């Protein structure tokens, strides 16, 4: 869908929200559905939410599924690992796809391609088939990358952190919501007359249909950038079609992306781990239909304390996830998609490693595994202290004494030949608009008058 243009003296399209020189929204109005900015926001978080529901539809029903399929603790652990391991490389690939084809097409395609695995969950009849459907369903979690890329394409520096955090956070709610949705759907189907070993299978059609519909919504109603979709902008010459090798190179050599990937591995990665283990943990430890039912039944004692800790834990985990992707858009303008993919993939790597070490088999009890996971979170979060931007500074020191500007930092990703061809213009605009991220205590360095600043960083 293209944004309607209204003739003005500046010949710029008119938007429902105020925009900067890149036509990115400078305000974030969560109650608005105006195209293209806020519509993209709502499409992105809802579609990501649907993928989360699909990926973690199985854990709340594991007490029934394991009896039906005769799953061992090792089978369940392997399936949980499979659900989050598939998206490791899918997220990196998704970042590349966003850079080359745009977030709308990349997201809709992956959601639609992974939906059949959710439908096939209903016919799983062994540990192997259960593992496979969870593996392929987990690919859909790579839509987180397109969500963050999309927000970074639609919102300016002053609000992009909020947009990324809210879109990612609301999407992540699917992991918690499915702990409520699937037991309720299962109970409803069983109450209608299906036996429990049939009811859990029918229940999977609900998340599968939700995911399918969200894919069509993204494709038909979404738009890649404020001024249009990638394909049209590239054909018209308004957007440069970048060289993948250069995009990948500048992403890999930027150490900040690696640190954010590690940090995300132990906020989002831990969230994925908990989504996989918590329902069965509550069921086995407190002998009820799960944590939610325990709350409803008014249980007290250690269960209440566990739930309280879980709520506090969730708040801090979600805040850490939002913080991480609030930084991602500023690491690289040229390689935004790959940096997003690396960071998002780090979340899945963290989940896989954590589950393999602490929650696979019987080496550790679940209680001990959770405790050791906490220690690992602390250790793997410390490298965030090392992130430093020469134009803005870091946690322990201020900006570079050389007076490095935003233009210096983002222009370093383009060589002189590319600048002569004008390929760097989008990065230049981003540099100008990101100047608002400077601390009030730090004076902005002057912008070079020739618009092609030196490239030292």
TrEMBL record:
Gene Ontology molecular function: any one: nitrate transmembrane transporter activity
Pfam short name (any one): MFS_1
Origin superkingdom: Eukaryota
GO cellular component, one term: endomembrane system
InterPro entries attached to this UniProt entry: MFS, MFS_trans_sf, NO3_transporter
Chain ranges passing through the membrane: 45-64, 105-124, 131-150, 170-190, 202-222, 307-331, 338-358, 370-389
Keywords: Membrane, Transmembrane, Transmembrane helix
Comp. bias regions, Polar residues: 444-457
Membrane topology, record value: Multi-pass membrane protein
Record's compositionally biased regions (Basic and acidic residues): 432-443
Localization of this protein: Endomembrane system
Similarity section: Belongs to the major facilitator superfamily. Nitrate/nitrite porter (TC 2.A.1.8) family. Belongs to the major facilitator superfamily. Phosphate:H(+) symporter (TC 2.A.1.9) family.
Protein name, UniProt field: Major facilitator superfamily (MFS) profile domain-containing protein
Species in which this protein is naturally found: Nyssa sinensis
């Amino acid at each position: 869908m293209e944004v309607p243009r209204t003739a003005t003296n500046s010949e710029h399209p008119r938007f429902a929200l105020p925009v900067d020189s890149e036509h990115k929204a400078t305000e974030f109005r969560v109650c608005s559905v105006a195209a293209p900015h806020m519509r993209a926001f709502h499409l992105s978080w809802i579609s990501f939410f649907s993928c989360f529901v699909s990926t973690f539809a199985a854990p709340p029903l594991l007490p029934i599924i394991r009896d039906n399929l005769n799953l061992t603790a090792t089978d369940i652990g392997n399936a949980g690992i499979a659900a989050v391991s598939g998206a490791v490389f899918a997220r990196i690939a998704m970042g590349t796809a966003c850079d080359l084809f745009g977030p709308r097409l990349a997201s809709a395609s992956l959601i639609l391609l992974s939906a059949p695995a959710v439908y096939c969950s209903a016919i799983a009849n062994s540990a192997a088939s259960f593992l496979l459907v969870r593996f392929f369903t987990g690919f859909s979690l790579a839509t987180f990358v397109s969500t963050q890329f999309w927000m970074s394409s639609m919102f300016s520096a002053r609000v992009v952190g909020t947009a990324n955090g809210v879109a990612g956070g609301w999407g992540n709610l699917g992991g918690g919501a499915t702990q409520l949705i699937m037991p309720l759907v299962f109970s409803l189907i069983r109450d209608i007359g299906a036996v429990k070993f049939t009811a859990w299978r029918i229940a999977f059609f609900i998340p599968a249909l939700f995911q399918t519909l969200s894919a069509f919504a993204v494709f038909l109603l979404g738009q890649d950038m404020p001024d249009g979709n990638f394909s049209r902008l590239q054909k018209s010459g308004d957007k440069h079609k970048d060289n993948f090798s250069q995009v990948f190179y500048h992403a890999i050599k930027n150490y900040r992306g690696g640190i954010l990937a590690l940090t995300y591995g132990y906020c989002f990665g831990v969230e994925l781990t908990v989504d996989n283990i918590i329902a069965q943990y509550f069921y086995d430890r407190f002998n009820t239909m799960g944590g939610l039912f325990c709350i409803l039944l008014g249980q007290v004692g250690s269960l209440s304390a566990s739930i309280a800790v879980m709520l506090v834990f969730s708040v801090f985990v979600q805040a850490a996830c939002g913080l991480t992707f609030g930084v991602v858009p500023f690491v690289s303008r040229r390689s935004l998609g790959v940096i997003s993919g690396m960071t998002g993939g780090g979340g899945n790597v963290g989940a896989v490693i954590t589950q393999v070490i602490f929650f696979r088999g019987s080496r550790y009890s679940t209680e001990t595994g959770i405790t050791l996971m906490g220690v690992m979170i602390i250790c793997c979060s410390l490298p965030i202290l090392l992130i430093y931007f020469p134009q803005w500074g870091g946690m322990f020191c201020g900006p570079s004494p050389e007076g490095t500007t935003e233009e210096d930092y983002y222009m370093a990703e383009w060589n002189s030949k590319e600048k002569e061809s004008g390929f760097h213009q989008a990065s230049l605009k981003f540099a100008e608009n990101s100047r608002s991220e400077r601390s009030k205590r730090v004076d902005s360095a002057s912008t070079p008058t020739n618009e092609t600043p030196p490239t030292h960083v």
